[in-house]
Amino acid sequence: MADTVDDTLVQAVLAMHPWVQRHPPAERFGVALRALLAAESCRRGAPDPVTGALHLSALTQGALLKGEFDLSVHAHVGWTTGAVIADVKEMMLLNQEMGFAPGDRFLRAVASALSATFPGVPVVRVHTDCFAALFLPSTGVALEASAPDQALQALHRTTEAFRAAEGVPQRPVDFTVSGLRLTVVDPSHWQVLGPLLWAEIERAHVMARRGLASGIQERTLQLDGRVPTPRG
Asked: Is 173 helix (H, G, I), strand (E, B) or coil?
């Protein structure tokens, strides 16, 4: 026998997605429920439907980094990972020229270019037009000093291929590309790693965008998360 959904539950779901008010009343609950399911799927590691990259929530709220953490080792030597961060400059202007549908296809091409340049490395959509390829310890792929340049060259080739195929964009396209190597010493548990890595990716990106850093930015965070051994 099918479960019933009372009006209180319907209103609670609708309140989580007020934008569904633009849909006809009979469709709103279904649209809101599908949005909740999509968000939870992305948190669990399903690709972002627009770009094919991993959703940010998989990094900050999901279990993307769960397998990366071993307290018996990393509490003593530190957990080290790397990232290549790529942002499309002036994406808003590109959308104004091309339209949002071609703009979304271009973002998918950007994410695919990063995945192809660094095989076996997960790519996360950090925000609307910014992606990070994560050189996690489990990938076995080292972050080389040349990685940001490799990414930039691949993105320019991708742009030219996209322009040849679609005829847009006519305006020049450029990218901010930066690199990060992060070591977290004494993390208390794996759940802290995702938000910390996200924050450091954003920091590295802003530094590069402002011309305050280049190459691979080296960062070490000391958390002092180990539980002290009781003294007898």
From this structure: coil
Beta-bridged to residue 177, according to DSSP, are 86
Region of residue 230 (left: phi > 0; alpha: psi -120 to 50; beta: else):
beta
Contact yes or no for 185/222 (Cβ under 8 A) = yes
C-alpha span between 2 and 124 (Å, rounded)? 38
Q: Is the pLDDT of residue 1 over 60?
A: no
Query: Which residues, 6+ apart, have CB-to-CB distance to 59 below 8 Å?
Result: 65, 124, 134, 194, 197, 198
pLDDT at 73: 63
CA-atom Rg of the chain in angstroms = 21
CATH class of 59-222: alpha beta
pTM score of the predicted model: 0.89
Could you tell me which of 178, 186, 170 has the C-alpha nearest to residue 143?
Answer: 178
Give dist(CA 32, CA 9) in Å, integer: 12
The domain spans of the chain are 10-43, 59-222
| Residue 151 contacts residue 135 (beta carbons within 8 Å) | no
What's the rounded Cα separation, in Å, for the pair 17 and 167? 36
Distance CA 155, CA 161 (A): 10
Tokens of 18: 């007020």
Phi, psi angle pair for 106, to nearest 5°: -65, -40
Nearest partner of 104 among 128, 75, 84, judged by Cα: 128
